[in-house]
Amino acid sequence: MSIKNISRRGLLRTGAVTAGGLALPTIFTSSASAYTNEPTGSSVKLGFNVPQTGPYAEEGLDELRAFELAVEHLNGEGDGGMLSTFSSKELQGNGILGKKVEFVTGDTQTKSDVARTSAQSMIQKDGVVMVSGGSSSGVAVAVQGLCQEAGVIFMAALTHSNDTTGKDKKANGFRYFFNAYMSGAALAPVLSNAYGNERRAYHLTADYTWGWTQEESIKASTEALGWETVETVRTPVGAGDFSSYIAPVLNSGADVLILNHYGGDMVNSLTQAVQFGLRDKQVNGKNFEIIVPLYSELMAEGAGSNIQGVYGSMNWNWQLQDPGTQAFVQSFGKKYGRPPSGSAHTSYVQTLLYADAVTRAGTFNPCGVVEALEDFEFDGLGIGNTYYRGADHQCFKDVLVMKGADNPTNQYDTLEIVEVTPRSQVEYEPDHPMFAGGELGECNPGA
Amino acid sequence: MDAIILQLFNGLEKGSAYALIALGLTLIFGTLGVVNFAHGALFMIGAFCAVTLSRIFQISFLTEDPTQTDFLGNPLQVETPYVEKWFGADAGAWMIDYSVPLSILLTIPVMLLVGYVMERGLIKHFYKRPHADQILVTFGLAIVLQEVVRYFYGANPIQTTSPSDYSGTVNIGAMFGMQIFYPVWRLVYFFFSAIVIGGVFAFLQFTTFGMVVRAGMADRETVGLLGIDIDKRFTLMFGIAASVAGLAGVMYAPILSPNYHMGMDFLVLSFVVVVVGGMGSLPGAVAAGFLLGILQSFASLNEVKAIIPGIDQIIIYVVAIVILLTRPRGLLGRRGVMEE
């Protein structure tokens, strides 16, 4: 057909038919699904997006172990773990709303762009209704934003930055893990008792969102004690050799070094600080001390004897004696031959909390899940009475203050619980200045 | 003043590692003409030789202690290393304590073998290919090697301690009546690298083998025409270069807890060191290693960063740009190397 044969009427007709044809699948889709990836078969798929390679891979692998265990328990396999201790008795081990739970995994490589791509693939190709995981606040914030846009629920795992439930909070995102503010609030009284109120602190801080908010939080809580902050120095993530940053500490007049580092950076900076003899020094007539505000069991294992006597904080630890912890440790220990890490615990609990919220809501619709999780109060998942605040989707519960064990008897016995800080001591208002600047917004069901 | 002296020592220690890695890179480039992006991985394998020997020495048998329990509430299994059973408690404990320096004995043959296999098995097939191909294949090899290490050793850094006799600090300012404490092991590392660098130069300068290699580096064809099998010698040089990287890694293990990607962290910096020193120049690589190590340490001083924020992250590249603009062949580079 030559171009001369196209009439105006014919062109309009062809255009209308083509546009209608193109719109047809969308029309069907939107009428068929009320929300993104509504499960229609006998199973439902969850997406676990963790670092399987890169510097936080060990944390990610432990998270995956816990996710796998949670799915087993939800499907009625194994010993049921915390299902029997959870205060909500909705979960019966028959999947979620009677649908068998399946999962897909992705590798974030602890890089925000890779994590987003991986989560996007899970949502678009695999059809997951919930994404969980992450071992870095940068990744968590990025994936949380994506899930909000896509209309699926994000149950954050390991993210400690204030921003995750502060300026970057989202209606579709929920955090069970504690945050930097809570670490500061829990540590301050213990540090005051141990080291007094006249100290001079020097901060070495990982140069990204988590490091900045932890530095801000610890600085605020220690200065409230009367401590002076001598210097705050930002260090690149993955610096490896921190000797150039540690040497200036020696002549700064500081008598406390606060390491706002995590993972491999913390292992290296702490080890090197000890090698430089900081802990043998006397400054201002006091013993020089080192503090690691955020601990993990895997980091403690890597740092070996260098952490002996060093204070820090944790979200949860396998040595707790409550029935929930005992059930989880038994379950995890029998399956994997080692106690679970804090990140494993958070991953497991977040999966159960999601499944429970869906069951209570009676739907996988993200808006129903959000409603079920907001202001939900529960117990039996490891660290006493816990509250998911509706205003910012942050969990509030007791916080553990830890210390490097003086006489470890085995490779897992690296940390000891110094104090269980009550929830009331770490609570704050939703509009606290450290969390200001963001809006939770409306839940997005997608589709 | 104290801070300046400390940063000078830090720079020397950091420069020692750069110099050792860059020396191996230059040896390979000078002899075989290959740009070896897997050299950082060889440094990493060296560090893991220390981890491996330490773990071998700590292989233990279990005895049950009914008075204690493990995390599941079962009777605690107490581990006793076999070396303590076979050689006595004191000798066994000494072997575990000195596992890093003893690892040198393991590292040299392992790295010679790794270097030989790498060169004969893969890299020799790329001699006549463009440098871009060599970079791609060696970079790919580096990724494979680090993933193999991650598979067996995990992703977390593994703390590897120096012998307890060398784990403290020493007052390096004592001779000036000052109190400046510096970690003993970092000083040991500096002297160790000085010995290795001296040994490599002496080997090349004072042995017949070294003389032939140097002649081959200068004019490969003529040496071949004289009936000398220069390829065989160059293969051995690849093994020696790998061993130098391995030795740099094994002794660095107590300074930087070994992890599977530590080689990549050093690789880029070491290439800058080679380029600044002058492609193919062994003294240039060593001089640039120490120079950049010291500059990087001084750039980390808070006073310097207060004037130019972030200078500690870019100083090496700034210096590289300045030197390449003023001396395009690097500090001690020779005419004709890497030039059309």
Automatic annotation (TrEMBL), chain A:
UniProt keyword list: Amino-acid transport, Signal, Transport
Cross-referenced InterPro entries: BCAA_transport (IPR051010), Leu-bd (IPR028081), Peripla_BP_I (IPR028082), TAT_signal (IPR006311)
Extent of the signal sequence: 1-34
One Pfam family here: Peripla_BP_6
Protein's UniProt keywords contain Signal: yes
Annotated Leucine-binding protein domain residues: 43-403
Superkingdom, taxonomy of origin: Bacteria
Family: Belongs to the leucine-binding protein family.
Protein name: ABC transporter substrate-binding protein
From TrEMBL, chain B:
Transmembrane segments: 16-35, 42-62, 91-114, 187-213, 234-255, 267-294, 306-325
Keywords: Amino-acid transport, Cell membrane, Membrane, Transmembrane, Transmembrane helix, Transport
UniProt xrefs under InterPro entries: ABC_transp_permease (IPR001851), BCAA_transport_permease (IPR052157)
Domain of life: Bacteria
Cellular location(s): Cell membrane
Pfam families on file: BPD_transp_2
Topology in the lipid bilayer: Multi-pass membrane protein
Keyword Transit peptide recorded: no
Membrane found in the keyword field: yes
Record family assignment: Belongs to the binding-protein-dependent transport system permease family. LivHM subfamily.
Cross-referenced PANTHER family: ABC TRANSPORTER ATP-BINDING PROTEIN, BRANCHED-CHAIN AMINO ACID TRANSPORT SYSTEM PERMEASE PROTEIN LIVH
Protein name (database record): Branched-chain amino acid ABC transporter permease
Lineage per the UniProt record: Bacteria, Pseudomonadati, Pseudomonadota, Alphaproteobacteria, Rhodobacterales
